[in-house]
């Protein structure tokens, strides 16, 4: 990316360096060096600058060293010119070595020198050395300027020390240094960056810049707009977009995509489409990602026909649809049970020689299984297998489809096949099969699978325990259900309201009101709330029991 000058093995190798850096080699001055030749200061400065302009850093440093040993040292501006040239050519270690070596000689060092060295330390990753140099600069009586603060803020931003960077911003104001556009741009960049996004802080910086008369750049606005959209703040996004329109600045393609994506996810599709059209007036051409987020939003509100038209337009006018585009449309078709159209779309892709990825297959496999098209799902599964796309997720999906249809033999066969392919069955697969066997009333097979989970060293999760509880309760095996409840606690899991509700409702339906009340008391002790369905059921059974007892009193009186 940058052209680098050759390392300075001549004059710098002769410097007596006491630099506390992890990257710089130490060497000593030769005791047999030639006596210095004196030139007029202005002439020496001119020669040094000529050498720097020609990229001859070695000759420039040689002249600088001669001057440093003479009775006519050069001004700090000459040293700064050399340091700046080394820094621009990315020879940061050489600049650091030169700086620390010349400090022992009669060379003037000013604030600019320190600023350059601070940047060099940050560039070499020596964060602590940069801070030490800053403290040293203060102790020498030099007050930091805007450049100093900007260099430090840049270093903090690179290390993601956001709070420290903003602390420096406060320090700037206290010391009477006015932050400039570069200061604010760095802070906007770090608070908008993926992984540490804080759209609120970004918006505050934009407002502060406007109040100070520093109009943010298009990049500043776009960064903050994208961050706001990721946080799904519609009102704030519209405010920023309105401000940009007012000052004649348009978002970049990334910010537009984030904005359209947010509107689509909020099901504000009409506004998303208006924004899509507005891109052209701003001279920003929508790319495939723009089309994808808009199609996704259109599909979210169920307008699949419109999504298909957009896909057709992309095929004829561009940009070329990506695998993500097709996956979005396939998922929408599957969601509306338009599975034949989804299969046709997949076949069209295959005939066109376009690559079909794992996500496409997976989306369609899930849709077929959910739509009770397990036979078609099995055929697609075979295609996936021949393409090497089958993994534990696809096996789980097809096993769930077979269990849904009551085809437990086919499901068990897939389970064995997955093990044979060294695809270790997970808790999800076991839970699906356990649920399937309970649904057909085969409690023995379900319990065998539970034992197998323990043998394989898998740890049951709350969903598996809930499935067990549901199956046992449906078969009125309440003692076994109670044992499962105890085991759940032993595993360090806490029964939730859904598990208790399931057990209480089943006990009520079986007429075991006292047991149901016992578990209701347990819930109360744990601070869990019973849902309305269970409360109604308890009252209904308790009221029936009361009426039954009342009806028995009169006949009982006949016995005296």
UniProtKB/TrEMBL annotation:
Belongs to the PPR family. P subfamily. InterPro entries: PPR_rpt (IPR002885), TPR-like_helical_dom_sf (IPR011990). PPR repeats lie at residues 110-144, 145-179, 180-216, 217-251, 252-286, 287-321, 322-356, 357-387, 391-425, 426-460, 461-495, 496-530. The keyword Repeat applies. Keywords: Repeat. The keyword Repeat applies. One of its GO terms (cellular component) is chloroplast. PROSITE patterns: PPR (PS51375), PROKAR_LIPOPROTEIN (PS51257). It comes from the Eukaryota. NCBIfam families: PPR (TIGR00756). It holds the Pfam family PPR. One of its GO terms (biological process) is mitochondria-nucleus signaling pathway. This is Pentatricopeptide repeat-containing protein.
């Amino acid at each position: 990316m940058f052209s680098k000058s050759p390392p300075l093995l001549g004059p710098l190798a002769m410097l007596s360096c006491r630099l506390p850096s992890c990257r710089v080699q130490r060497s000593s001055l030769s005791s047999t060096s030639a006596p210095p030749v004196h030139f007029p200061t202005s002439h020496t400065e001119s020669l040094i600058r000529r050498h720097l302009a020609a990229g001859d850093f070695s000759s420039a440093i040689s002249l600088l060293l001669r001057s440093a040993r003479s009775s006519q040292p050069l001004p700090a501006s000459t040293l700064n010119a050399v340091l700046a040239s080394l820094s621009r050519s990315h020879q940061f270690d050489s600049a650091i070595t030169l700086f620390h070596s010349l400090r022992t000689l009669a060379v003037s060092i000013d604030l600019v020198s320190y600023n350059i060295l601070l940047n060099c330390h940050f560039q070499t990753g020596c964060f602590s050395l940069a801070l030490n140099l800053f403290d040293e600069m203060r102790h020498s009586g030099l007050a930091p300027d805007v450049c100093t603060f900007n260099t430090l803020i840049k270093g903090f931003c690179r290390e993601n020390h956001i709070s420290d960077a903003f602390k420096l911003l406060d320090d700037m104001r206290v010391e009477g240094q006015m932050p400039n556009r570069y200061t604010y741009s760095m802070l906007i960049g770090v608070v908008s960056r993926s992984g540490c996004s804080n759209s609120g802080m970004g918006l505050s910086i934009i407002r502060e810049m406007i109040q100070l008369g520093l109009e943010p750049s298009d990049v500043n606005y776009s960064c903050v707009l994208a961050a706001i959209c990721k946080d799904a703040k519609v009102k704030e996004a519209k405010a920023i977009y309105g401000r940009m329109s007012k000052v004649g600045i348009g978002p970049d393609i990334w910010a537009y995509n984030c904005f359209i994506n947010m509107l689509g996810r909020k099901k504000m599709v009409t506004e998303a489409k208006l924004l899509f059209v507005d891109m052209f007036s701003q001279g920003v051409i929508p790319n495939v990602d723009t089309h994808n987020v808009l199609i996704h939003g259109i599909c979210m509100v169920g307008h699949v026909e419109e999504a298909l038209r957009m896909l057709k337009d992309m095929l004829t006018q561009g940009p070329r649809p990506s695998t993500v585009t097709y996956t979005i449309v396939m998922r929408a078709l599957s969601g509306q049970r338009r599975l034949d159209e989804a299969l046709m779309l997949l076949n069209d892709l295959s005939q066109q020689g376009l690559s079909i990825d794992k996500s496409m297959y997976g989306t369609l496999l899930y849709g077929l299984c959910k739509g009770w098209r397990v036979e078609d799902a099995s055929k697609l599964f075979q295609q996936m297998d021949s393409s090497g796309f089958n993994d534990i997720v696809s096996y789980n999906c097809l096993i769930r489809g077979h269990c849904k249809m009551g085809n437990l033999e086919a499901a068990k066969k897939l389970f064995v096949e997955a093990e044979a392919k060294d695809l270790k069955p997970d808790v999800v697969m076991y839970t699906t099969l356990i649920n399937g066997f309970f649904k057909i009333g085969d409690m023995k097979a379900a319990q065998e699978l539970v034992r197998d989970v323990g043998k394989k060293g898998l740890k049951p999760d709350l969903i598996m325990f809930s499935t067990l509880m549901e199956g046992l309760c449906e078969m009125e095996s309440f003692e076994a259900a109670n044992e499962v409840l105890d085991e759940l606690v032993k595993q360090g899991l806490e029964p939730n309201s859904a598990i208790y509700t399931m057990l209480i409702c089943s006990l009520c339906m079986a007429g075991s009101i006292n047991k149901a009340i016992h578990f209701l008391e347990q819930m109360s002790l744990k601070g869990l709330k019973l849902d309305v369905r269970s409360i109604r059921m308890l009252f209904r059974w308790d009221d029936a029991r009361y009426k039954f007892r009342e009806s028995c009193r009169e006949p009982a009186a006949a016995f005296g």
